[in-house]
Amino acid sequence: MSFSINSNVSDVAEVGKVATIHLTGELDSLSARLFQKEIEKIALESPKDLVLDMENLSFMASAGLRVLIFSKQKIGPSLNIYIVKPQEPIVDTLEKTGLLHSVTIVDSYPS
Amino acid sequence: MESKIFPGTVESIDLIRQYIKEISAHAGLDKKATYNLMLAADEIATNIMLYGYEKAGLTGDLKVLHTITEEELVVIFEDQALPFDPLARELPDEEDLSKPLEERSIGGLGIFLTVSGIDDFSYEYVNNQNRNIFKMKLQKPD
Hints:
Order of helices and strands of chain A: EEHEEHEHE
Number of helices of chain A: 3
CATH topology of chain B: Heat Shock Protein 90
Largest sheet of chain B: 5 strands, antiparallel
CATH class of chain A: Alpha Beta
CATH architecture of chain B: 2-Layer Sandwich
CATH class of chain B: Alpha Beta
CATH superfamily of chain B: Histidine kinase-like ATPase, C-terminal domain
Mean pLDDT of chain A: 94
Strand order of the largest sheet of chain B: 1-2-3-5-4
Helix content of chain B: 25-40%
Oligomer: heterodimer
CATH architecture of chain A: 2-Layer Sandwich
Mean pLDDT of chain B: 92
CATH superfamily of chain A: STAS domain
Number of strands of chain A: 6
Strand content of chain A: 35-45%
Number of helices of chain B: 4
Shape of chain A: globular
Distance between the termini of chain A: 31 Å
Order of helices and strands of chain B: EHHEEHHEE
Low-confidence stretches of chain B: none
Distance between the termini of chain B: 27 Å
Radius of gyration of chain A: 13 Å
Number of strands of chain B: 5
């Protein structure tokens, strides 16, 4: 299945730098490499909020979870991670692995 | 048992996932069970391709066998990489899983997801082959 990713960083009043990443398709160990590269690029800008649009992401393997962990470790513990409209099986995976407590699920950002 | 052979390369992982999806549909697994089986198959296939073959400098293939009985769907992965028991390493426990992200170690999540999503997952090494066995219970029609 195809995977695509694009990102941007913008300045938002009263928040600071916000990095937004749109993830589409299936996130497996191969595509997670692209995801990690994107995080490394974004980390240079030290964003306050990281917004991951997962509305069109249909699959996420543990390699994707590892990039979530990596992003917090790379950018810093004060980074807020928002996940926009994740599909049900992905929420299950986040819940099972205890990662759900470290992210905020939202319908849109800013809400 | 029906079988299909995939080259032992990372490019096959995606194709194996789609093949598992087809098998699951054929067996009548529901959406959630299908996703869990695809996820588990992805995790195990990734280990085999990346660590069993690529990083070890070995070449080989991954044979996916399956059979559907009245009670269950059984999928078996056979590969000729070095013996590797995915269940031998310690799985993250409750305490590990409740740690905040910044304190998380990065390993073990794939196997954890495999074991937790499959009704019966097992491993054996037979005739110089790794065999990873996934069993999913089938829901009886009402």
